[in-house]
Amino acid sequence: MRLSNATLWTICIVVAAVACGGDDFTPCQGAACGEGGGRAVGGASSTGQSAGGEGGGTSATAGIGGSVPGCDGVCVPKPGSGFGDSFMSLYIGSSLPSCGSAAELLHAHNGELTAETACSACTCGAASGGSCALPNVTFYSASNCTGTPQTLSILGNQACKNIVLSFQPYGSLKILPPAVTHGSCSASGGELVAGPATASEQALGCALDSAPSDACGAGSACVSVPPDPFPLRVCVQGGPDADCPEGLPAKYVLYTEVEDTRSCTACQCGTASTTCRGTLSGYNSSNCATFDDTLNVQDGCTNNQVWGSMKWNSGLSQGTCPPSGGEVEGEVAPAGPITVCCIE
I need a labelling partner for 179 at 20 to 30 A (CA). Which of 1, 16, 304, 315 fits? Predict the structure, then answer.
């Protein structure tokens, strides 16, 4: 059977329509067709990873759909009141790319902060102001500091004191430790050595072009596709503790500031370890004429000394002061919280 020319042309048109998808065929456009070097959204994907952060060129999730005729970017729901009017791409990582020619809308951090902090050591200067009182000497009528006691006062440093007792001879003697006035020291140190606070990750938001579009429907805007190396994530900024709207469900809590309360506790110096180390010189005659022996306070009870006079020789050690303080207090903490809501 021979077909007419008109019948042949009809068959060709029908076959062409079926090959292109029939009644459901929609011509692709823009980035979806690979034109102009743009990024693919929806079904197409290309993988990549930016150093220190998120991968660029990832395929769209269920949140960001494919191209829509009449919108050269992606259709994104408008967030409503309580959020900024500007859409932005959001990059989170340990290092950040540049916004290029786009306006920078956000520079924040994730709140996980570290900072090197120390205080310089506390030190105490030389002790001063310590003193020793004059000691007393107790004589005993028997050995080993037993029997009847009698106490004589020292007249002064290097002053000769004749030994005149109600009993003679005496059998032993003991120097009573002099009263000590402890000195003091000046404190120094405790200076704060603080490094800058560093977040484990930073966040950068760059403006995306947007415009109302009949193609996206009421309540949505046509937003340009985030460029490499930004992920396919379109976001808006809200307040400190905003609830993300249904159309922008991915919530990020970020911080724009750092509160630094670090300091060092004040350095202080304890009481000086002042000690008295005087000696008592004994003489066999009165008026300190014939020297016999020298005793220390630490000697305790001494037997069989037959002295007629004595002389005190003062000795003072100012000692040192124990330092304290110079401890780190306070911390670095995130401040200035914001909420970023995204579709991704």
Answer: 304
